[in-house]
């Protein structure tokens, strides 16, 4: 059906536009203005049944977008990341990636296709020529813009085509959930993991070099020894994660040289155990001065006094090294009497 088949009284009223107007060329205006071509009415402008069909098509596209978004979330939750499928001609690919890509692409395509079909079949397609105006808008222009906006909103039939409006809002509201569920890949919440290590009461102090438990007689005055908790092996899957928090150094100081009362109570015969992780940015501390009992971080030269509660005496570190309370078991081996009393490592307090 075309506009030529419809009586004039059934055609939509035309706004006053210069369609097909042709000006005459003269000396001042050497180029003739061809104007705009005559407006051709679409079948949706003349037949309400065709308009309803277009409305249902747009609503269907928005609904399919919503279903695709739900499919994206369901695929993300239910499909095993290790599962693969065969897709011709690509070959074997990840089932999860294929499902996520397909659902996300379909959701975006349907929103775009619905918007395009809506604009091409139901919104006004009358071309409007307007004169250029100064950059600074006058009150009259602002009033005209608002009037044009209201007219455009009216012509879009957003208020009258409730099916399109509701399904469009549903598709646009549901689609961002695809991004929200991806937050799961940030990993589980840390909980209290930053506050604790695998040190616990009764765990032996094992020499990192010999992999053997230590007796007090194995630790000489002025020596520095690195230890790990009993049961933590290098071939364990979580070794690097756990040793990054549990790495500990022990030194032996004459009890008379220990200045901090709590440090003396938590030591055994002058053997003190401190976290090896620098409280600045987490570098492993490895330099020890026997005469001063200072340990130095090689990264940024933070210096700690192991004879005075591990306090910071130089450098950018923010707080003292945490001390591990130790003792001796019935067999004469050094053991931990609990975990560190405060979180080890850098920037914990800044993270809250």
TrEMBL record:
It comes from Streptomyces spongiae. Residues 271-335 form the Rieske domain. The cytochrome bc1 complex is composed of a cytochrome b (QcrB), the Rieske iron-sulfur protein (QcrA) and a diheme cytochrome c (QcrC) subunit. This is Cytochrome bc1 complex Rieske iron-sulfur subunit. One of its GO terms (molecular function) is oxidoreductase activity, acting on paired donors, with incorporation or reduction of molecular oxygen. GO terms for cellular component: plasma membrane. Belongs to the Rieske iron-sulfur protein family. The keyword Cytoplasm does not apply. InterPro entries: QcrA_N (IPR045603), Rieske_2Fe-2S (IPR017941), Rieske_2Fe-2S_sf (IPR036922), Rieske_Fe-S_prot (IPR014349), Rieske_Fe-S_prot_C (IPR005805). Keywords: 2Fe-2S, Cell membrane, Disulfide bond, Electron transport, Iron, Iron-sulfur, Membrane, Metal-binding, Oxidoreductase, Respiratory chain, Transmembrane, Transmembrane helix, Transport. It comes from the Bacteria. It is a multi-pass membrane protein. Iron-sulfur subunit of the cytochrome bc1 complex, an essential component of the respiratory electron transport chain required for ATP synthesis. The bc1 complex catalyzes the oxidation of menaquinol and the reduction of cytochrome c in the respiratory chain. The bc1 complex operates through a Q-cycle mechanism that couples electron transfer to generation of the proton gradient that drives ATP synthesis. It is found in: Cell membrane. SUPFAM superfamilies: ISP domain. Its cofactor is [2Fe-2S] cluster. Residues 14-30 have a biased composition (Basic and acidic residues). Residues 1-41 are annotated as: Disordered. The chain crosses the membrane at residues 58-79, 85-116, 163-183.
């Amino acid at each position: 059906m075309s506009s030529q088949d419809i009586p004039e009284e059934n055609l939509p009223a035309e706004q006053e536009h210069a369609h097909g107007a042709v000006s005459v060329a003269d000396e001042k205006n050497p180029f003739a203005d061809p104007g705009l071509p005559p407006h051709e009415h679409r079948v949706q402008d003349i037949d309400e049944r065709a308009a309803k069909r277009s409305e249902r098509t747009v609503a269907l596209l928005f609904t399919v977008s919503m279903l695709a978004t739900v499919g994206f979330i369901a695929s993300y939750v239910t499909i095993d990341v290790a599962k693969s499928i065969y897709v011709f001609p690509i070959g074997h690919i990840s089932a999860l990636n294929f499902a996520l890509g397909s659902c996300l692409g379909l959701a975006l395509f349907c929103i775009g296709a619905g918007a395009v079909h809506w604009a091409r079949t139901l919104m006004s397609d009358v071309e409007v020529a307007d004169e250029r105006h100064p950059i600074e808008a006058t009150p009259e222009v602002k009033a005209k813009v608002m009037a044009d906006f209201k007219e455009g909103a009216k012509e879009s039939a957003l208020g009258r085509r409730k099916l399109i409006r509701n399904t469009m809002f549903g598709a646009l509201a549901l689609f961002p959930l695809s991004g929200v569920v991806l937050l799961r890949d940030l990993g589980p919440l840390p909980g209290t993991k930053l506050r604790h290590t695998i040190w616990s009461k009764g765990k032996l102090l094992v020499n990192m070099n010999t992999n053997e438990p230590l007796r007090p007689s194995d630790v000489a005055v002025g020596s520095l020894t690195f230890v790990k908790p009993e049961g933590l092996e290098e071939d364990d899957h979580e070794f690097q994660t756990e040793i990054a928090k549990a790495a500990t150094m022990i030194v032996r100081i004459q009890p008379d040289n220990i200045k901090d009362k709590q440090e003396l109570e938590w030591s055994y015969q002058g053997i003190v155990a401190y976290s090896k992780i620098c409280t600045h940015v987490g570098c492993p501390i490895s330099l020890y001065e026997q005469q001063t009992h200072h340990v130095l971080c090689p990264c940024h030269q933070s210096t700690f006094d192991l004879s005075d509660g591990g306090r910071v005496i130089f450098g950018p570190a923010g707080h003292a090294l945490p001390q591990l309370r130790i003792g001796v078991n019935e067999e004469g081996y050094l053991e931990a009497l609990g975990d560190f009393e405060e979180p080890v490592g850098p920037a914990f307090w800044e993270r809250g």
